[in-house]
Amino acid sequence: MLLALMLLPLLAEGQSVFQFHPQRRNSVRMPFQLERNLVVVPVQLNGRGPYYFMLDTGADASIITDPTLRETLGLRIGQQYMVAGVGEEAPLTAFQTDGVKVELGDGKVVAPNMSMLLLSADVFNLSSYVGLPVHGILGSDVFRNFVVEIQPENRTITFTRPEKFRRPWGRRWARLPITIEGSKAYVETKVTLLDSVEVPLRLVLDTGAGHALSLETGSDARIKLPPQRLRTLLGRGLSGEIHGYLGRVSGLYLGQYRVKFPITSFPDEQSVRARVGVPRNGNLGFELLKRFHVVIDYPHNQLLLRPNSLYRDPFEHDMCGIDLLATGGNYRRYIIKRVEAGSPAAAANLQLDDEIISINLVPANTMSLTQIGRLLHSADGRQLFLLVRRTDGEMVVARIKLKRQI
């Protein structure tokens, strides 16, 4: 999933910084949920909650995506903005809301008087995409004040005071310099394309992107679409749906590590280039970053990576050909919102708005959206038996033979 927000310098003026409470603390560790390659953390707003926010280095500002929180929290509405990001639609109306007290880690990390954006509509629909309630996005505000260590294996985040941080040493740690422009972090690296052409890259470090790698063909003439590719919906940004292609590159270099054949998004140029303020070639997402113990260190301009047990997991795309949205009070009803033409799902006559009741006799409501996604990505040739309910109530059994498409 692609998420992006254009720089809003006026919003940043007078922005409250995050700090430890009490201030004598040097570090705080807290759990997070990793769902569909997105980092989701519990947050208290104005002493109420928990609410759930996605942690996103790719977002310039912190955003409340759920407009119903305006009334729930009694938020004051200030200046109106037209905000734009990646996508094919017109900008969206949003409002500045000041004086929001934001707390993480059971109140140990606090921004006492924060300015945030309040969207006029929940265009991301993150809750249905992730499969749990998501109320907003915490952007670069968090990363400016701390060294942030993310351990995907044990689902913990550690915030450390920059002056107390001690860089880990050892041959397995890769260090990549980062530059901060506006509110985004950029990594310089290189990619080997399938024709063996090696291209230097400037990538946005983007924990809010669920994909592994995204490359923008209009940013460099050498970046071309791979011969084997899949035309598809890549995700949604602030300015609407993002279409493009999925394919693979031969390898991406991260320090001494060469990540082989990652699935790569190639968004349509018109969806991206008009919204880009700082030159770049694409972004580095969490499907790739989750394979490392990650230290994001804005204060010292560095990204530190050490491979974890996920490092050698293959990169796979959906082998079924459906997009699912989670609905219902607990987000455990799964509705098919798109069926890929020519896919195994289409061959099995799955239809738009079918509800998945069970997979291989296991009730779907006992599984998370992430767990179902793993099944649909699992193995070329694997057979799945789905029980689905049609919109007219008819129950249908569908036999799916998964097929690797890229």
Automatic annotation (TrEMBL):
- Keywords assigned by UniProt? Hydrolase
Q: Which Pfam families match?
A: Asp_protease_2, PDZ_6
Indicate yes or no for the key word Acyltransferase: no
Record carries keyword Hydrolase: yes
List, for all copies, the residue spans of the domain called Peptidase A2: 51-87
Name this polypeptide is given: PDZ domain-containing protein
Identify the residues that the record assigns to the PDZ domain, covering every copy: 321-391
